Amino acid sequence: MYWPCGVPQIFAHHAPQQSARNGEDNASIQDSVANGQGRDSGDEKVSTGSGESSPDSRVLKGQSQQIIDLKVARAEHIFTTLTRQVLDVWSTRPTVLLASLRRSEKSLMTYGNNVGAHFRPDATLIVLHTSLGYLLLYSVEADPNARVLQQRTQESQTRKQSVARTFGASEGNGLGEVILRFRKAIKIDAGIESVVALDQDLIIATVKPPAIQSIRWETQKGLHQTSTQLLSKLSWSENKASITHMVHDRAMNLSVWLDVEGSAYAVRRMRPQMTHRGSSEESSQSTLSATQAPQRLFDGYRFHTPKEPSQKACLVAINARFSLIAVATNDGKILCFAAKDYAGNIPLSHTFKTQASPSVTLKISALVWSPDGYCLFAGFESGWATWSVFGKEGASSFTSNAAHAEANTENWLLGVQSASWISTGLEMLLSCPKDSRIWKLDFSRSAAVGGFSCANLVRALQQTPTELAVYRGHELPDLISISNEASLWHHAQYPVAYLHNQGPIRTTVISQDGRYIAVAGKRGLAHYSVSSGRWRVFSDYAIENSFAVRGGFCWFQHILAVATEYAQGYDVRLYSRDHELGRAPLHAETFSMPVAFVGPSGEDSLLVYTYENVLYHFIINITERGAQLLPLGQIAFHGVVRAPSRVRSVSWILPENQLRNGDPSRDVEHAAVLFLIDDKLVLLHPSRTPEDAIKYDMRVIAHQVEYYILMRDQIYFNFSEPIGESAPPTPSPGSIFGLRKTNIHYSLRDSLWIFTGEKLCLWSDVQDLLQSMTGLATTSQSLVTIPLDFYPLSILLNKGIVLGIESELLQRRDVNFGQYRSLIRTQLFLPYVLRHQLLEAEDTAVAFALAHQYQNLTYFPHALEILLHIVLDDEADRKRKKAADLDDPGPLPAILSFLQMALSPESYLATIVQCVRKTEFSFWRYLFAHLPPPEAMFEQALSLSDLKTASGYLIILQTFEEEEEEEEDEVSEAQDLVKRRRFEDQVVRLMTLARSKDDYELCSELARFMIGIDPRGDALRRVIQKVGFRGNSIYLQPQQARLSRKNIALQDASTSKEAARPQNLGRLDIRLTRLLAEEPKSAGAESEGVVSRSSAGDYFSASPGDY
Asked: What highest taxon heads this organism's lineage (predicted)?
């Protein structure tokens, strides 16, 4: 998932206004190019000057600086911004202007205003389509000898060499100059509705007649330069309406068209037929008319049909990584379809929902997937929002203060016109309506996005454009690890030279113990030590540039295993953190095909999956002299896995006996293999045929999987002793059930965690999956679902927590810009696992074993309180719906019995009272139907001297009495008096115990509580007299309250037998005696020696009405 971070950067080009001179030939295009010097435009030289403006140009003056389109080249090295008159070419790294082209007034009158810009895939041509139906082609030429933005400083040669060594290249070299040259103008007589640039040709959707025209970039022998396909001749185009929007994805070789009626079509280009052309056709033409090709050019299927005008499709984006198509409709909704094949099987997968209403978001104006396909960005007319690939909402600008943003002209928060990802998804370029500025917003993402690794997920490694951030809470105390302190994150900036030469960073991986991190850019790699804070990079740039990381890498202790691609082929190399990079690797294992995935398994096993559909198993042998890979076996999945390039991750599961006592060379015979293919988690289980051959039974165990974590491979910290605050000892349920020797089996060491976009699921024991394949168990019984309202970033297994982050927008009055920062979010998963084991799996032994494993956590009682909350809510729903027999006790008795055995008596009583006070009163009776009366639990809390818990039960008692009084029609005064006296006696006992323990804060709280019950103060006076506080005391001035301990004891000798009191007892007695002596306002006279009504009569009226 992606999260915006930091403050966006702003870029703008303010060029001087220029206009073409009158009298120029209207047939030629007169442009002015600002790229350091004047350049030719077509066959004419640049002409600048002043002249009268046409009516069209006068209209454009107010809009000439507004960006109407923004496009990024496929290689992401340059991008363009387009206004009605100006075309600017920018460099992405760094973001600087390289060339600017301003069209002349005569050109605007002849060919129309700019409407859109399109790059040829190799970025050698830019095509502008205009409002009058013209295509203007400009070549993008780079002069290697000319430089722009070149610094001229008086530096010595030594200084220049030092800068080159530090930063990889001298900043004084500048950037290569880019020259825009006009090539040709093409007239489309039928009008231009939409344009899309492909590798071989340019596709244009025309207006009248509705048709698709294809113009080849280069003339090829045997092929037509142009071809036309009328939509009326396409049988699958039911509406026969013109196409308003087209997108194409190269990886899927699929296009999506949207027509005027709002329908969406999945379209594929058919292979052209070789035809011989006559000599008359070989001449190039600048003006093309609609010509019909003899064969059908496109084949497609309609997968979205609007039923209402609000459901018409307006924008579309293709996700090749997960084979998804996102379609935006006029009502502000985003529908996601799954392209299962090319035969029209494109069903609706899910819907992206935003918390803001359509009346707030308005219409969708931009829709783009991140390059890796894990994030969807949607720009609205009033803001923007992001989602994970399967619908988990991320950051959004709709939570911002619109008035603050308008006052500071932060248009990027108020609306988006166009958006494009750069830097492999770590940065985004935004343009806003009626704005001439470019906003570049940085994003942070999980390192598992660039290279899938369970260690990246468990260690919560994040990646930004300039640095790494590692979560350090695994080894910290319990409460500190879930705070938002900055010390929880370790930040490390990328080495400057490597980032300059090989940026942006594409792949990142961390070791399982969190000590080492490796990064890889376009070429080479670098690794980092968290403890020392030092990077290691290649000292020789030629060696660094000789290979690229393809397929990922992983750590084994201090050894880094890297899958690489180099000039001679493909291999897996081993590098040591202890050695300098630049020398030969410790070991290299050569492969005939590219590596699709490399990852660890267990303590010393390495799994390598290649494009030849073979999984290799190696053992890493680490010695003092170095390390080497020892091949042990391989598994071929021909006919099982169709497309190895679609595999995102591979893991395998060994039976317990084979894992501990088996021969490693025979692991391939017993291993069950987990494949993450696109969004499906597939389990392949081995079995023997009658011929004693191994076959694999395949089963898809989860769909829409964003990631998974197999905990048995995370062996370094998941089951270490937790480091936290000391907790009181609790009974060991393991000893009760005889599980002390088998607690390891019932831990979550073998758990499998899956996040599906909306919910987090886990199998508490992955062996259940293997048994389900053989029919010995059912998988549904082992699946646990954990609801979340944030995106889970990591699983802190030893702390029972799901860790996530969310972005928060900071808008302060003392600064004129907004800033995004990341906040930690946590969710306890232990209550849901215990509920599943107790109620669904009905395995009490496992539940007690898990409780025993987590009993030392500081917040363990709170986790059981959440468990009680969940079950109580379910019980209330069951009672209301009457779905079950009313005589059925339900799940509450089992949960209460579990809590009573898993917690100490003090913690049990405290958990019950905290749960009751946090739920509505209608749920109380469901709970106390299976508990002793509140009076009995109050007495038990008193006997344990747990004053805080006893005070909570006192409130419960008073609430039940009030409810009984409302339900009873008539209550005699005698009965009411008995209840009140009994309740006062309970308050007296509690206050007496609090006074004996010097807990005078609780005494004051009880006094306020009695005032809330009886505002006249009669009940409080009786309680104070029974407790033993002084009844006739003269009001003391503040300076008289500072009495010595001896004087206080003398004054209270007649009413108290206690020998010692704390220093603040005088102040407490003053307060209580004032409450005791104060008469109600209805009284006719003041008591002697008591403060007058005029000075203290407002005390009772200002006191709270309840506790």
From this structure: Eukaryota
